[in-house]
Specification:
The protein has 117 residues and is an alpha+beta fold. It contains four helices and three strands; from the N terminus they run βββαααα. The protein has a three-stranded antiparallel sheet with strand order 1-2-3, with no helix packed on it. The longest helix is centred in the last third of the chain and has 18 residues.
């Protein structure tokens, strides 16, 4: 292998590139992280269904994070217990009102007219 090794300094560290006959190959590095066996098994199964191995799947995620400059999905804490209780109560009230035989049902046209839409 007669190639040229380039060391490039970047803001976030350095990149080692091997140029061989006009093709640039980035040096690889290893990342170790912990997860439970079931999550690993399920992820490997999904990746296999997509035609890739675990390493490729995780690389897709990492490259998407870099490209998007963040996660490719929303990370939230979810609704708190107080909000969930309030929402459950409101849904129950709505369900009960739905059973009222005297309730007024509006058509879409009536709603639009009522709100000048």
């Amino acid at each position: 292998m007669n190639g040229v090794i380039l060391l490039t300094k970047q803001d976030n560290g350095c990149t080692i590139e091997l140029q061989e006959k006009g093709v640039t190959m980035l040096a690889s590095t290893s990342i170790t992280f912990r997860t439970d066996d079931e999550t690993k098994r399920q992820a490997a199964s999904v990746f296999a269904d997509l035609g890739m191995d675990m390493s490729t799947g995780i690389n897709v995620l990492l490259r998407t994070i870099v490209r998007e400059r963040g996660f490719p999905f929303v990370i939230t804490l979810g609704p708190d217990a107080e909000y969930q209780a309030w929402m459950k109560e409101k849904l129950a009230e709505s369900w009960e009102r739905r059973k009222d035989p005297n309730r007024k049902v509006y058509t879409l046209e009536e709603i639009k007219a009522r709100h000048n839409l």
